[in-house]
Amino acid sequence: MSRNKRKRFYPPRPFRIWDAVNKRDLPRRCYHDAKRAFSVALLLAPTFQRGAKLEVYHASTGRLVGQVITRARGILFYHAPARSR
Question: Are strands 64-71 and 53-58 parallel, antiparallel or unpaired?
């Protein structure tokens, strides 16, 4: 099989949650769709200390889906815009 004809491998659950402050993936936090991963990141945010940043990304492409940042007066979230083709 030639190099150009190989199919690219995509993991079955490519959306991951990354702890940007501690620089590690959250264990057992892999999701099939971005919406579910982002909503879980919003639910997990209050359990972290102030100043924590959780990022949802696509593991195969490395594309950032969104960020959740904990602050003293609440939780900020940023959802990355979809790419236009």
Answer: antiparallel
